[in-house]
Design goal:
The structure holds 2 protein chains of 2 kinds. By secondary structure, chain A is an alpha+beta fold. Chain A is 35% helix and 11% strand. A 4-stranded antiparallel sheet of chain B has the order 1-2-3-4. Classes of the chains: A alpha+beta, B alpha+beta.
Chain lengths: 259, 67
């Protein structure tokens, strides 16, 4: 089946269906003209301007005319299993859910289980939805990412039941260059290099326990940009390939000098 | 007072007046008639009444083998 509504469904959102981990799931829907993430930002703005799906900064970005949610219809056993994977990932603040705004399903086939967050790394909190979520899993993504497969693909890894380590290993040795808002060991590596070079990731007065916390927050962003400034280049909201190369060179020079 | 963190559909029961697309590829819609009764409306006009167990089997489709 091809994308039935390219005007409203991005190719990456459609891939969340075609690349699903279990072929027997049924598609409950992606686009629907109703308040919330199944419809576009511009439709919500026009018809339901107070809707929660167009409020947070990352929902003010991305395509204005596309849906940002998917429903997977599945059996009771599958509902428990797949909701369990999502719940565990949320509890562990798994970075594979960075692009996810909310999800609903059930862990026991009796009560709806839902979680929501406001940003890539924001804290998950409980949220409620009607009892149709006992038989379909609903997932909304932050609208900024509806057209970015690299941001959506990790969600399928969670739904497949893959562990974070398995997923990271499966990246096949690709260097993961972090950007602001991300967290994980790939951020911690950068933090350790920056600190070794004298660019502290803890801002003045900040908590020293966050120095190598693996979170690309304001402190790490400032350190990255201080490092870039030391080389005469403009700030960036990510570790670019050039920045990474310069970090490796600089740390290598430290080692050569026996520092 | 409305819960600002709630999704688009009202929390609570999905009842006999509520419809939901259950299979977008075929256009089959579902509504819940009671605690153990569901109704599937297929695009060709046929209507199936199912118990919860039968609805579960329908949702299971061709099984749940991982790809």
């Amino acid at each position: 089946m091809t994308n039935p509504n390219p005007a409203r469904i991005t190719a990456p959102m459609w891939r969340l269906w075609t690349d699903r981990p279990v072929s027997s799931w049924r598609l409950g829907g992606i686009y629907a003209h109703k308040p919330g993430y199944h419809s576009s930002r511009e439709e919500n703005e026009a018809a339901w301007p107070g809707n929660y799906s167009i409020k947070v900064p990352l929902d003010r970005q991305g395509p204005a005319d596309k849906a940002a949610a998917i429903d997977y219809t599945m059996s009771d056993a599958e509902m428990r299993r797949r909701t369990g994977y999502l719940a565990r990932a949320a509890e562990q603040r798994d970075p594979r859910l960075a692009a996810v705004r909310e999800f609903y399903g059930t862990l026991d086939n009796r009560t709806v289980y839902g979680r929501i967050k406001d940003s890539r790394t924001g804290a998950w909190r409980a949220s409620s939805a009607d009892s149709s979520h006992l038989w379909h899993v609903h997932i909304s993504v932050l609208r900024a990412y509806t057209n970015t497969w690299e941001e959506l693909e990790p969600l399928l890894s969670v739904l497949a039941g893959e562990s974070l380590d398995e997923w990271l290993n499966r990246q096949g040795g690709i260097i993961m260059l972090p950007r602001k808002g991300q967290e994980g060991e790939h951020v911690e590596v950068i933090q350790r290099m920056l600190v070794a070079l004298g660019f502290d990731t803890v801002p003045p007065g900040g908590d020293v326990k966050t120095r190598y916390d693996g979170i690309y927050g304001d402190g790490t962003a400032a350190a990255v940009n201080a490092f870039r400034a030391s080389l005469g280049v403009e700030p960036a909201n990510r570790v670019t390939p050039w920045t990474y190369y310069q970090l490796i060179r600089a740390v290598g020079a430290l080692d050569a000098a026996g520092k | 007072m409305p819960d600002p963190d709630r999704m688009d559909e009202a929390a609570g029961d999905f009842g006999p007046h509520d419809w939901h697309l259950a299979d977008a590829e075929t256009g089959t819609e579902v509504r819940r008639l009671g605690p153990d009764r569901y109704q599937l409306h297929h695009p060709d006009g046929t209507v199936e009444e199912l118990t919860s167990a039968a609805f579960d089997r329908w949702r299971a489709g061709g099984g749940s083998e991982d790809r």
